[in-house]
Amino acid sequence: MAAPLASFALVVGLLTLTPGVDTALILRTAALGQRRRAWGVVLGIQTGTMIWGTASAAGLSVLLTASRLAYETLRWAGVCYLLWMGVQLFRDRHREPAAEDAPSATGQGNGGGLWAGWRRGTVTNLLNPKVGVFYVAVLPPFIPAGQPHLPAGVLLTSVHVLEGTLWSAVLIGFAHTLRTWLRRPAARRLLDRVTGTAVLGFGVKLALTD
Questions:
Q1: Which residues cross the membrane (predicted)?
Q2: In which domain, by residue range, is 134 found?
Q3: Is 148 helix (H, G, I), strand (E, B) or coil?
């Protein structure tokens, strides 16, 4: 498995570095000082990646390429979710940057913290049919003949998860340096508008892509 692992790591490494809606969400959340929630987003995205990879290794995500109805249903669910999220960013009331990380009387972060971030990251990833199609097309060729399909697929997916987590740590560290500047209401509004525009753009792109 050494050679396939190295080759797959290179392919998904390039994919990880390509900016997308995941990158926008992580940067926006971390830049507002919501580090716990940002890590929740990261864990949610990687949860979705592991689910897609496991499903592909098990043969389940082949349905996306075999069934036009299954793909279109998931695609339009993803479009609606991205458009809704983009609109919400434009309508955000701009709470204090650390509000969602501040402990409440119950010891839990306001606004959901880690859990809310995990939920958003997972839903965003799972409602992107391109991730499923990517794994259907790319994962099987990297599994050597004679290797158990499911364990090998999970191992390869774990490489993607590891690279994605490491890159996300870099993004969170970079975004955290902007925290002081983003305490200004005008700066937070600008960040939400930029992120909202990016998310809406990804939603429109997904709607127009066959």
A1: 6-27, 39-67
A2: 2-8+21-208
A3: coil
Beta strands (DSSP E) in the chain are: none
Digit-coded pLDDT (tens) for 160-191: 999 999 999 999 988 887 777 766 777 677 77
Structure tokens, 161: 């998860």
- Asked if residue 13 is part of any domain, the answer here is no
The DSSP secondary-structure symbol of 103 reads B
Number of compact structural domains in the chain: 1
pTM of this structure: 0.73
Q: Which amino acid is at 80?
A: C
As beta bridge partners, residue 109 has 103
Average pLDDT, the chain: 78
User: Which pair of tokens denotes residue 210?
Assistant: 């066959």
Report if residue 142 sits inside a domain: yes
Q: Is residue 109 classed as helix, strand or coil in its secondary structure? A: strand
